[in-house]
Model the fold of this input.
Amino acid sequence: MSQELPVTSYALLGLLTFGDELTAYEIKQRADATLRFYWVSPATSQVYSELARLTEHAFVAATTRPDDGRDVTTYAITDEGRAALRVWMEETPTGFPVLKHPVLLRLLVGHVSDPARIEEMLEEYAGEARRARDELVGVRESLRGADSPGEAFHHPALVADWGLDYFADEARNAERTLARLRAEAGGSEGHEDRP
Amino acid sequence: MSQELPVTSYALLGLLTFGDELTAYEIKQRADATLRFYWVSPATSQVYSELARLTEHAFVAATTRPDDGRDVTTYAITDEGRAALRVWMEETPTGFPVLKHPVLLRLLVGHVSDPARIEEMLEEYAGEARRARDELVGVRESLRGADSPGEAFHHPALVADWGLDYFADEARNAERTLARLRAEAGGSEGHEDRP
DNA sequence: ACAGCCATGTAACTCGTTACATGATTAC
DNA sequence: GTAATCATGTAACGAGTTACATGGCTGT
Done:
């Protein structure tokens, strides 16, 4: 009954399945630390509105408690929420990944731009991919101790390992393409058939 | 003057830089054949509305010509369009790729689902990634003959080669993760410390 | 005769973003 | 005292989607 929620809703709901109760603010942080790499980094305002919707559906329960004078609201997943997440996982089609890759988009139309600019872009991107990988290494390390089969962070660890490979592959592809472009530029100045 | 267009606009504009003049319908097909893999597959209706906007900006020129009785409109990039594309390429930040990966999202919360369902999902995805790669092989083949440095499809060929690697890596990661899950399930039934 | 492709749009809607606003507590 | 972080939202907007509508031409 009702798989009519956007995927991001289920994603946020999923962040609450690790045994703790979080504020919207903390959920946003958790999303930035993990979801960001392979789904999205929802805007803070969206986190609040999705939580409001999840509360309406009774998939999460909000608890408002005074904390040092001010009121703080924490959210916990409910049994209905867990059931809904399970139904979504098992009965809705997974769908194929969507990749929005501005580097590849710009490379595609590289012939309208300065070759040096394209090379610069690839170099920058290789660096960014390596930095993203380094950040993920940090995430992966933080899972150690509870990442064995059956433990709480086993699946997140599998995801992180996949991500580590992905970013390494991206950096490698950027560097390989860069090397090809440089070899061409160096091999013959401007034109082909010049001995 | 005006980099205020959405990236998809420039993407469609870029599809018109390969020396031909296309109908909206054909642009949609070209997008489905190439852009789809690393940007988006815009809805047909969006192709029409983006082309209308690009025409307003004089980045493309529409030519309506009767063809077998009915009127057919083709679009060609203008000099202004080429200049705008170049400015966009060289003066706006490229941005980091956004990956919406439903397989990784579901794997992350795998502990709320049936393990068999997760394995099934990974198996399916590995197959889909291989099929996507096969389709890209077809695209890559179609570029042969004009893919050398300096030729029209050199950059698209670089992109396609990158994509071939990407999909192979995805299939490999899916299979590796699947193998890990199966090894765990087979190695010890349910719990850990049982000899 | 009918399905499928070619070709062109309009209308309604939703997801998600940016900008804005507020205020309290903590660290320097 | 002032900057950063914690915490919570509202409002306006834009990109992109689905659903709908139309009609001619092409192959069987």
